[in-house]
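Cont'd.
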Amino acid sequence: MSIVRVALRISAVEALKGRTLVGGNVLDSQIGALDVAANGSLHTPQERPFISVYTDDSKVTNGLELRSFTKSGHVDIVFEAGIATPHVVTDTDTDESVIYEGVPATDANFEFHLDLTMRQIADALADPENEWAAIFNGLVRSFEQSQRSRASGDTNGIRLAAHQLKLTVDAVADPVRGVALKDSSPLALFFAKCETDLVPRMPDMARKIALMRTQIAGDASELQAAMRRYGMVYGEADAMLLTPAFEVSE
Amino acid sequence: MPVGASFHSVRDAVVSAVDGKFAETIRLSPMSGGVRDQQRPQTEIEAVLRTGGEKSNSVDPANPAAWQSKIAAGKALLCIDRTRYPDMVVRKQDAVRALARPGQPVFEVSLVDDRNHTRLIVELVHK
C-alpha cells in the first residue's frame, strides 16, 4: 500500500545517492521536463546526467481476502537513467564536450555511461554496507522481475539516450492502523533512518514522517486490528467467529 | 564549380540581402570522434540561426507511455550562404556556438542538408 511505496522510493533514492556516476543527482518522482540553461557556465548540479526513481504500477493478485487493502502486492519500481547533449561539459574555447574528464560525449560513450550507471544501481542496492539499501531490501519480500529497456534519439532538439530498469517486487504490506510497529520492522527502521539522516537536511521530511506515523497510530484492540487487516465489517467478523462470544463487550 | 543558371544572380542577391539583416556571428568548431578535428580549423562565420521554442518531450518519443522522464529542448537550424562560404564543410557532431546570444549557447550538428542550392541547411541539437 502507500506507506510502503513511499518508504521503498525514498530508501531507493537514498541508497543510490553518491554511489553512481550521476553522484547526488538522483531524483524522486520527477514530473516535469528536465531543462538545461543555454549558458553552460550557469549549469547546476541537476543539469547533469541523472537517475529518476519512481514507484509505478502495482497489483495485488492474491491474498486480498475480503478487503485487505493494506497489502502492497507486486510493485513496479522504475529507475530511469538518462544523458543528453546539454548534460555534458563543453569547453568554452574548443567546444569539445566530455561526459567526464577524458570521455568525449559520443553516442558510444553515452551508452557506456548508461550501462555502467545501471550496473552501479544494481551494486548499490545489493551492497551489504549500504544502510539505505538494507532498508529497501527489508521492505521487499522477493524480487519477481527485472526488465531493462533503452531509448535514444536526436530529433527533438537534443541528442539523448536513456536506460530503464524496472524491478517488480513483492513488497511487504502497510502496517494496520493502531498496531504498534515493532522496532525491528522494516518500516520502523525506515522511520528511524529518516530521522537521523534526512530530517536534518530536508525540512519537509519531519512533517512527512509525522503524517505517516499519524496514519498508522492508535491503539487498536485485537478485534479492531483483525477487522482492519482484512477489511471486515462487524457482521463479517461475527460470521468468522472473531467477535467476542455471547455479545460480551470488551 | 556548379554550372551557372540564369536565376542565380537573383538568388544570390536575395540570400545576401536576407543574411545582411538576419545573420549573426557563429563559431563553427569541427569535431571528429568527439574531439577537435585537426583537418578543419575552427572558424567564425555570419549565418542565419533559427531556434524554435522549447517544449517537453519524453525521452522515448516513439514509446512515451513506457517512460516517465521528460526533457525540454527546442529544434534549431543554421542556414549558411553557400555563395559566401563555398568551401564550407559541416559534418554531424560539429559544434556551433552562437556568439551573439546571451550565454553564448552551443549546439551540435545532427544533420547537414548540402543539396540545397542557396544554403547549407544544418540541423542542430542543444549542447
